Amino acid sequence: MEIASINSLSETEFESLVETIVNDPARHGQLTELLHEDHEIYDQRGAATTVRMRGWLLIGLARVGVSDEALIFVLEELDTGTDPYLVAAAAHALRAYPKPTEAFAPFLIRAINNIRFRNDPVSFEAYGEYAVDEESTNPVAELLTSLEWLESRARGVLPDLEALLDKRNGLSSSLQAQIKQTIAFIRTPDEDSGDDCCVLPAALRNKFAWNLDLRRRSDQLETTVFEDHNRDLVTFGEFFKGRPTIVVFFYTRCDNPLKCSLTITKLARTQELLKERGLIDQINTAAITYDPEFDTAERIQGYGRNRGVSFDLRHRMLRATDGIEPLRRHFKLGVNFIESLVNRHRVEAYILDHRGQVAAVFERIHWNEEDLVRQATDILQEQSVASERKTSVRKQTASPLLGTMFSIGFAFFPKCPICWAAYLSVFGIAGLEQVPYSPWLRTVFAIVMVINLASVWLRGRATGRMLGFYLVSLGATAIIVAKFRDSWAALAVIGILLTLSGSMLSALSGRKRKGVTNDGGMQIPPALRRW
Amino acid sequence: MTTKSKATKKAKSSKRPRSAKAAMAVATSEQKPVKQRVAAMAEVPLAVCDSDKDLQSMLTVLTNKDEPIEVRLAALQSLQAASFSVIAFESCRSDYIAALRKVATDPDPELRQRVLGILAREKDGYAQKKLLEGLQKPEKALVPPEKALQLLSYDIHAEAYPVARAIVNKPPSDTARREALRLLAADAKSAPVFEKLLRDKDEDAEIRQISASALQGLKPDKLQQNAREILLDDSDHDEIRATSLTAITQFGDEEEVSKDEILKKKINRISKKGGSKVKQSARRFMTKYGR
Fold first, then answer.
1. Which of A10, A43, A127, A172 to mutate to test the interface with B (most CBs of B within 10 A)?
2. Is B37 helix (H, G, I), strand (E, B) or coil?
3. Nearest CA of chain B to the CA of A49: how many Å?
4. Do residues A175 and A111 both lie within one domain?
5. Residue at B146 is within a domain
6. Which domain-ending residue is among A332, A367, A402?
7. Which of A106, A218, A288, B84 has the maximum number of C-beta atoms within 10 A of its C-beta?
């Protein structure tokens, strides 16, 4: 069954699909593909169905093993999940990751604190099954088992675990017993595993940035109209072009306090940071609703104000008047819908450059406000570097022209005072007859021509593009050869043209590209190359 | 000791509340009369979660179909009262939810409905699945359709909109249709349906009022526009005109309304000649916008 055509699958068919994938090692990667929120399989499904499907995919991962690509989805659920089934399934799946790491412990303890008051029974026995008896498991039990799996690598969270033993914390006696057992496991001395302390696998960083020349253009959104919190209309081009913008997505009916509500609160804190650093007038902020049909201007304003967001012309909360679809396509938003209502979304923050192009994205795991501002500042600085580069390109264009002029001078320099007089008579109209014949000029032209040749060679070596140098060398040779016989004057013209084109080519060619990098300077995994 | 003082002492001791442990023993004992057990259940909420044994005994009473229904309902009430103290109840929640799911399909309709209500308020996926199943296949319904819709409306993500729309189009009863419309009041796609119902003079007044209220949430501009037209139309019913007047008075754009001379003139006339209900609303409007 092709994954591309499965949006109409019934839940029973979906269950069989997962079973088929689990049983075929060559297709295990498809489990991760199916976890992307924007996958069509979630289109027009309700939130409860989406939970059942995603939970079953996580259980599938637990059976086949969690890859680096899949791990981010597991950690995302631990970081921001509030559904007992999904959190329990994520905790269960985490133990199928081949290498337990110290960095997982904070995710697990945070998840315990997030879910403990909704510690509902869950069942992994069959698809869509809800636990109705005591033999079932629950999210806190699964999270504790995962901490046990980390063994001594979870030492950093021992104080948090011990705090859970406090009588006032009210965990059931069976969970209290499990906590004691987990603490004992963690305290067991073990041999040094040689793991990198506290570092997530490299492919898991939740932040991706793109080089200026690899960003996706935003032209198709140019005329997209937004209504802001004050009911004022503004187009994408008007608001997002001219300076970098920090953009977050949310919707007011989101019932996960760790997603939209926290995102908008974090946006308010980001604005405070921008104020402190004197950047508030140089970097815009925008919060765009996923649910423009329901989220009226009044609603989004109230939602932002209650969470401390500051508003002005450069800091707005927006709803797309013609729906979310164009934005969803452009940003490749991690969201899906049942009709106009969101059924699932990820946490996502974007930084757009001064041309409105996506320059960086923070996704799935909660972003840090400091990191976001730092990245936005880099993008702001990149704008001034770009304008400096423009000036430098103008200079680079002027320099080969000058070199070529000297080559022309050398090629057509008169051989004697009589030829000089003949040239001057041609230029008589301009009154140039007063210029005396200066034979030393020929030497000057020749020297400058050689300097130009050397400069083109140096630039060719630096950029790895030597074609310009070869053309200029050929041109210089032709000019020099043309000097030996008067009848070869046409060769001088060819030489000049070759010099001119070689010099221009050298000046305008950039450095050879070496690939897309994320913030760590690493190659972005193919699965994450979305722009 | 005199007989009088003995009697006073006896009376005092009979009023002294028994210990929670004693109450729990009575509440969970099959040997005790139903009335006594029900009374004891009312005394135990704070103790339900004190020990695993007590919790399991209470849950056994709740899930045991052979227990008298009065006692089971009292046990449910006691557990529900205990669950209000979220932190104290944390250790019991998992078993409590599992027990509720078990009872959600109980043969007793009252117990079933109350349990489904508790689970629906918790946005429990199991309860939502059962309720939706019942709406799609009436033979599997655990509660009447209007109740199922009401319970599903606790969670906007409960995927109930398509079913609710189907019920509006082909309602099994008037009550079910009304509940379906109430549920759709949060569905942005249903705004045109509400607009049509609001303007339909043959429609029931309650349905039209539900539609006005839904439009206020979904498309406030549309409500204002329609309310104005209803007020200008003398042939429309007083009840709906009163609702329209309230909408304009409370939520209308003050600047726009105060410039609307035609509307003001019309409302002025209503305030003098309209029915009593609409007259009152018109006077409120005139107080705000002057004459």
1. A172
2. helix
3. 9
4. yes
5. yes
6. A367
7. A288
Print the domain residue range for A358: 207-367
The radius of gyration of chain A from alpha carbons, rounded to an integer in Å, stands at 33
Residues A214 and A196 in one domain: no
Q: What is the pLDDT of residues A223-240, one digit of tens each?
A: 999 999 999 999 999 999
**What are the pLDDT digits (tens) for B238-279?**
899 999 999 999 999 988 999 899 999 999 888 888 778 788
Read off the tokens for A288.
């765009």
- B280 and B200 in a single domain? The answer is yes
Give me the residue label for tokens 């041309």: A355
Handedness of CA A302, A306, A310, A315 (dihedral sign): negative
Q: How many domains does chain B have?
A: 3
Cα–Cα distance, A328 to A216 (Å, whole number): 14
CB pairs under 8 A between A and B: 98
Whether A147 and A157 have beta carbons less than 8 Å apart is answered as yes
Chain A nearest C-alpha distance from B6 (Å):
44
How far apart are alpha carbons B242 and B230 in whole angstroms?
A: 10
Q: Do A51 and B125 touch (CB under 8 A)?
A: yes
Per-residue pLDDT tens for A372-412?
999 999 999 887 666 666 555 555 555 556 666 666 666 66
According to the model, what pLDDT value does residue A433 have? 47
Is the CB of A85 inside 8 Å of chain B's CB atoms?
yes
Residue of A466, A461, A460, A490 whose CA lies nearest to A478: A490
Q: Is residue A186 domain-shared with residue A68, that is, in the same domain?
A: yes
Contact between B195 and B230 (Cβ < 8 Å)? no
B287 found inside a domain: yes
The residue written with tokens 């014949």 in the block is A437
Considering only CA atoms, which of B211, B186, B187, B215 is closest in space to residue B201?
B211
Phi (first) and psi of residue A234, to 5 degrees? -150, 145
Q: Is the pLDDT of residue B58 over 50?
A: yes
Angle between helix B261-273 and helix B220-232 axes, rounded to 10 deg? 60
What are A317's strand-pairing partners?
Answer: A287
CATH code of the domain in which A228 resides: 3.40.30.10
Determine the average pLDDT of the residues in A174-184.
Answer: 93
Question: How many angstroms separate the CA of residue A18 from the nearest CA in chain B?
Answer: 21
Separation of alpha carbons B15 and A472, rounded Å: 112
Q: Tell me the residue range of the domain where B219 lies.
A: 188-291
Q: Is A169 on the interface with B (CB under 8 A)?
A: yes
Given a cut of 50, whether residue A511 has pLDDT beyond it is: no
